[in-house]
Amino acid sequence: MKLVDVHCHLDKDFFGEDVEDVINRCRKNNCLAFPVGITPITNRYVLKLQKKYPDVVYPCLGIYPPDALKKELEEKDNSEDLEYDIDKELKFIEDNADKIVAIGEVGMDAKDGTDLESQEKIFRKTIELAIKLDKPLVIHSRKMEMKVIDILEEYKFKKIVMHCFGGKHSQVKRIRANKWYFSIPTNIVRDQHFQKIVKETPLSQLLTETDSPFLSPFKDIRNEPIYVIETIKMISKIKNLPELDVATLIRRNVTHLFGV
Predict the structure, then answer these.
(1) Which of 49, 61, 158, 247 sits in a 20 to 30 Å window from 33, CA-based?
(2) CA geometry: angle at 198 spanning 192 and 199, to 5°?
(3) For 25-60, how does the pLDDT look when each residue is reduced to its tens digit (9 = 90+)?
(4) Which stretch of DSSP H or E encloses residue 74?
(5) Does domain 3-258 have CATH number 3.40.50.2000?
(6) Has this prediction a pTM greater than 0.85?
(7) 140 falls in which pLDDT band (50, 70, 90)?
(8) Where do the domains of the chain lie?
(9) What is the mean pLDDT of the chain?
(10) Phi and psi angles of residue 215, each rounded to the nearest 5 degrees, phi first
(11) Which three-class secondary structure state does DSSP give residue 221?
(12) Cα separation of 223 and 200, whole Å?
C-alpha cells in the first residue's frame, strides 16, 4: 500500500535528532512525506530534509501569518523568524521552485491581536506566486474560513488544498463546488466534523495528512507521517471501500495535483 502525508511539520523543535528514525519508518511503510515550511528557518530546513532524503521527502515552502506566530517565536527567542522581509522570502521560494511540490503553509489566522489587513496582503502575494509558478497552495484558515474562501475565489485558481479545514458546512459545500481538495488529518478517528466532510465529498477531492506532530490519532503519542494510515482506515470505513482502493485513489489525487 502506498501512503502520502501531504502536510506535516518535521522541524527540529518537534522531532530533534529523531527525524531520521521518522523518515526510515516512512521508507519501510512506503509513505511519502510533504513537510511544510512556515518561516525562513523552517523553509530552509525542509529543503535540507529533501536533499538528504529525496526518496521520501517532498517539501512545501510557505509563509504562515507572521503575527500569528509572534508569541510562540518570542518564547523561543527566535529573532530570525520574528522579523524578516516577506518579499525576500517569497523570492527565496521562487528561486527554489524546482525543489518543491507546493506553496504552503499559507493563509490567515485570527488569533488575538493579529493584523488581518497585513495578513491578507501577505496571503495575496503567496497566491499570486503560486499562480505564477503553477504550484498548488496549501491553505491554513483558522477562524478566517469565509474570508480565505472569498479571496481564493477571486483568483479562480484551482490547485487548492484546504488543510485541516474546520469551517462551517456551508463553507465546505463551497470548497467542494470549487473542486478544491480537503486534506484529512489523522484525528478523523474521533472528529465527527472530518468524518462528515469525508462522507459528503467525492474521493477525487480528498487527500491525507497528519499535521505531525499534532492531531495524533493515538492518545499521548506524538503524531508522525506513517500514521496517515489511520485516515485511510477511516475513509475506507466511511466510504465502504477496501483500504487498498482508498490508498490507491488518494495517491492518484496526489499525482494529479502535485505531479509526484
Answers:
(1) 158
(2) 85
(3) 999 999 999 999 999 999 999 999 999 999 999 999
(4) helix 66-75
(5) no
(6) yes
(7) very high
(8) 3-258
(9) 95
(10) 55, 40
(11) coil
(12) 26
155: Cβ contacts below 8 Å, ≥ 6 apart: 127, 128, 131
Res 73: pLDDT: 74
Q: In angstroms, rounded to a whole number, what is the distance separating the alpha carbons of residues 22 and 45?
A: 15
DSSP 167: -
C-alpha span between 95 and 119 (Å, rounded):
23
- CA gap 206, 168 in Å, rounded: 18
Grid cell locating 179: 473542486
What pLDDT, in 10s, does the model give residues 165-182?
999 999 999 999 999 999
Q: Are strands 160-163 and 137-140 parallel, antiparallel or unpaired?
A: parallel
Q: Pairing mode, if any, of strands 31-35 and 137-140? A: unpaired
d(CA 172, CA 198) in angstroms, rounded, equals 11
What is residue 217's three-state secondary structure? coil
Which residue in the block uniquely carries the three cell numbers 477511516? 234
CA dist 168 → 18, 62, 113 (Å)? 37, 25, 23
- Between the alpha carbon of residue 147 and those of residues 143, 160, 172, 194, 204, the distances in Å are 9, 15, 13, 21, 25
User: What value, to the nearest 5°, has the Cα angle with vertex 112 and ends 111 and 115?
Assistant: 80
Residues 231/185, Cβ–Cβ less than 8 Å: yes
Question: 107 forms bridges with which residues in the sheet?
Answer: 140
